[in-house]
């Protein structure tokens, strides 16, 4: 009888899975298997007696947790809890153990790490073995697996944490078996709940302990009530908290009282939460100003801002009596809750109080609130981060430049506007761009402040950062349509709702600026959504705004990442065709990177295209350059050299190196020397004959390149000595670094020597080629100068 085909396939699949599991277990197994020593015993194992050996053969093998090293086998029971005497890590509270336990989120997703600073070097009883005879074999098996996982927790915490809760879940129907767990075992299990908000694990542990009639400590009770509250058992959680308060109100701590205040506020019952604070005063429990925070926010959430203001005043009085300073985050949260409730005046007053209560955040608000006005001129080609508002002579100083005392003396309008802008920046940092949009579209116009494109650009940037792309595009397109004098045919649903609510038409949005387009194009180019980039580029062409290189850089970099060479050339050509638009150093960094990749991947490209690009760079990147642009040019110069080297254009490279030094002060460092060396060595290996008549293709390795680059450095030093004398030349060069004398001057002379040595190398290489005589060499150089756009360049040999 033959085996059915389906059964054979199933057997093969099972064998394949078994093999994969064995391979994974082999990878996870530690390379060195160690056993935890037992205190009071020697390292050499004693020989067992004949009776013990026979008993060992009869006993069933102990269960082994997968993916772990050899388990710790307990040969004897210690009924005491020797946590201190045997130097075992002991945790006195949940907080202390939480600091020692690493959750899955922080462990890198399944990485085997050690949780504890000390390993368990003794035996700790996790269960009372004397009571195991009361249970069935299945229940004993579950208990032993749970005990083994607890003992080996330090070896693989990520895996064993899941295993512990798996075996705890197996005891839901038989919770009485957990009576044999020791206090130390329960504290270890509770410490595995490391989340700030209790999860279902806290609910599971608490349910098992209450089912087994095991008393919970106060910290465990707080974690259990939190687990019930956040896992669809709010009424049960509140009832459990009330019962404990009713039974022993004088014995519970302030932390347990505060738990009830927070839970009642989260349950949108601020009256009961405030009554709980009053009961705390009756039982002489110390009151902290933080107890009032959830009550204030709950009143605002249910639409009772008057009671929220009263509670806020009591909170300030409590902080003043206790001598506490209200933290900045508390002010931010409360002011944001008032704004959510529609109380803009109260929210702003709370924010102002934060400024005048001693919190040292004024400098931070100076940097954020009075942001620069991004108003780019039509012919400006600077990045928008560098565009600053020009201040005319005789203008009043900016509030950002004033001290706190001088700020109080300003007129109310300027003082108010300053703090509103700071408040908006604070809301943006907290991810509440929707509230900022409400401020600038409804509340600010009521206070007499005109709409500003800077504020709208803040909102667009905030919505994009929060992932609310639809709202960001809605705000931006309204500004763009205002710029091109075209109104949208129908308002959006959000606009209709706001018009019905306020009973009036919304304000006219300000005109879009270059910063508006740059935010959108930058976001969509990074997301590689070229359709949206093209859409907003088309809209930008319809506006009277003059685009700049900052906008085009986003588009070019997006096409570079997409490997779209044809569209990249088209976009760059349109950029060069604009007479008032000049590519900057960042543009050329992208262009040379794209051209180097195209040559490396053997894409179709004219062999003289690199000369055309260099000619355009000479025409558009005019000196002198800023320090940041010089750094960018120095960064992409090796890519430029690589483009010349790949096509073996040594005469063009010779001219380009001298032009780079003369025009943009490029430094020929070791990276440039290595690129030139690799190109020369690769070209030479074609001309090395073999004795057998073939061609010897030598490998251009790292050692050969390093030796050649070091030779060029030393050769450059000798040339400088011969030119200017040994007194002014570099005395010593160690590992490519200049030692002795003024470092900057010697570094400059070192780079000059590198240019001379490289020029000598390229000249000798060109003269050795067939068809390159002395006259032909000079003619080739003149042709290269003409094509590279540096005909007047004088090359010094």
UniProtKB/TrEMBL annotation:
Segments forming a coiled coil: none
Biased composition (Basic and acidic residues): 493-505
Biased composition (Acidic residues): 386-398
Top-level taxon in the UniProt lineage: Eukaryota
InterPro entries tied to this protein: PPR-containing_protein, TPR-like_helical_dom_sf
Region Disordered, residue ranges: 31-60, 370-401, 485-506
Family matches, as PANTHER family: MEMBRANE-ASSOCIATED SALT-INDUCIBLE PROTEIN-LIKE, PENTACOTRIPEPTIDE-REPEAT REGION OF PRORP DOMAIN-CONTAINING PROTEIN
Name of the protein in its database record: TPR-like protein
Annotated organism of origin: Choiromyces venosus 120613-1
Organism lineage string: Eukaryota, Fungi, Dikarya, Ascomycota, Pezizomycotina
């Amino acid at each position: 009888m033959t085996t059915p085909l389906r059964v054979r396939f199933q057997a093969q699949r099972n064998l394949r899975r078994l093999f994969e599991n064995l391979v994974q277990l082999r990878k996870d197994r530690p390379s060195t298997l160690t056993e935890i020593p037992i205190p009071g015993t020697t390292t050499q194992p004693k020989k067992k007696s004949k009776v013990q050996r026979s008993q060992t053969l009869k006993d069933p093998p102990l269960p082994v947790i997968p993916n772990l090293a050899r388990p710790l086998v307990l040969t004897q029971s210690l009924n005491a809890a020797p946590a201190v005497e045997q130097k075992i890590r002991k945790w006195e509270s949940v907080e202390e153990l939480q600091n020692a336990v690493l959750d899955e989120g922080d462990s890198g997703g399944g990485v085997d790490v050690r949780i504890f600073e000390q390993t368990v070097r003794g035996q700790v009883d996790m269960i009372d073995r004397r009571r195991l005879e009361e249970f069935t074999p299945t229940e004993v098996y579950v208990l032993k697996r749970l005990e083994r996982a607890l003992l080996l927790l330090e070896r693989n915490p990520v895996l064993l944490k899941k295993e512990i809760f798996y075996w705890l879940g197996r005891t839901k129907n038989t919770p009485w078996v957990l009576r044999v767990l020791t206090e130390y075992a329960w504290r270890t299990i509770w410490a595995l709940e490391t989340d700030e908000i209790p999860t279902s694990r806290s609910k599971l542990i608490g349910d098992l302990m209450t089912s087994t009639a095991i008393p919970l400590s106060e910290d465990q009770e707080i974690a259990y009530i939190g687990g019930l509250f956040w896992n669809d058992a709010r009424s049960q959680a509140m009832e459990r908290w009330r019962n404990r308060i009713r039974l022993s109100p004088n014995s519970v701590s302030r932390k347990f009282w505060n738990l009830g205040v927070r839970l009642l506020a989260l349950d949108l019952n601020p009256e009961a939460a405030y009554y709980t604070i009053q009961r705390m005063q009756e039982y002489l429990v110390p009151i902290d100003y933080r107890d009032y925070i959830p009550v204030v926010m709950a009143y605002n959430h249910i639409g009772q801002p008057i009671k929220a203001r009263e509670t806020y005043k009591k909170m300030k009085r409590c902080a003043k009596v206790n001598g506490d300073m209200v933290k900045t985050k508390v002010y931010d949260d409360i002011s944001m809750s008032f704004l959510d409730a529609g109380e803009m005046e109260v929210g702003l007053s709370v924010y102002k109080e934060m400024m005048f209560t001693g919190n040292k955040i004024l400098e931070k608000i100076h940097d954020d609130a009075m942001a620069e006005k991004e108003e780019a001129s039509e012919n400006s080609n600077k990045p928008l981060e560098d565009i600053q508002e020009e201040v005319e002579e005789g203008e009043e100083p900016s509030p950002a430049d004033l001290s706190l005392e001088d700020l109080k003396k300003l007129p109310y309008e300027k003082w108010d506007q300053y703090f509103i802008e700071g408040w908006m920046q604070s809301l943006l940092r907290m991810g509440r761009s929707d509230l900022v949009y409400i401020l600038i579209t409804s509340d600010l116009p009521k206070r007499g402040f005109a709409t500003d494109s800077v504020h709208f650009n803040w909102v667009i940037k905030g919505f994009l950062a929060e992932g609310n792309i639809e709202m960001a595009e809605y705000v931006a397109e309204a500004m763009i349509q205002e710029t091109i004098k075209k109104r949208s045919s129908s308002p959006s649903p959000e606009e209709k709702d706001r018009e019905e609510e306020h009973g009036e038409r919304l304000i006219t949005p300000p005109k879009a600026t270059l910063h508006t387009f740059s935010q959108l194009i930058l976001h969509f180019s990074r997301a590689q959504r070229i359709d949206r980039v093209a859409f907003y580029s088309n809209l930008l062409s319809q506006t009277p705004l003059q685009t700049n290189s900052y906008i085009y850089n986003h588009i070019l970099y997006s096409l570079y990442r997409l490997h779209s060479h044809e569209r990249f050339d088209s976009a760059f050509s349109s950029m060069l065709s604009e007479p008032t638009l000049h590519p900057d150093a960042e543009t050329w960094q992208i262009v040379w990177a794209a051209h180097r990749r195209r040559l490396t991947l053997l894409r179709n490209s004219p062999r003289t295209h690199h000369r055309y690009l260099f000619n355009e760079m000479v025409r558009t990147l005019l000196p002198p350059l800023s320090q940041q642009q010089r750094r960018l040019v120095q960064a992409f110069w090796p890519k430029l050299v690589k483009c010349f080297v790949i096509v073996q254009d040594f005469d063009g490279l010779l001219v380009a190196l001298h032009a780079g030094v003369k025009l943009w002060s490029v430094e020929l460092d070791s990276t440039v020397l290595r690129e030139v060396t690799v190109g020369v060595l690769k070209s030479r290996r074609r001309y090395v004959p073999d004795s057998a008549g073939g061609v010897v293709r030598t490998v251009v390795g790292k050692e050969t390149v390093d030796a050649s680059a070091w030779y060029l450095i030393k050769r450059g030093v000798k040339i400088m000595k011969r030119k200017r004398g040994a007194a002014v030349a570099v005395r010593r060069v160690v590992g490519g670094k200049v030692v002795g004398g003024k470092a900057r001057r010697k570094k400059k002379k070192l780079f000059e020597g590198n240019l001379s040595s490289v020029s000598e190398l390229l000249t000798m290489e060109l003269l050795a080629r067939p068809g390159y005589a002395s006259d032909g060499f000079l003619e080739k150089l003149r042709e290269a100068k003409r094509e590279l756009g540096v005909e007047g360049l004088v090359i010094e040999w």
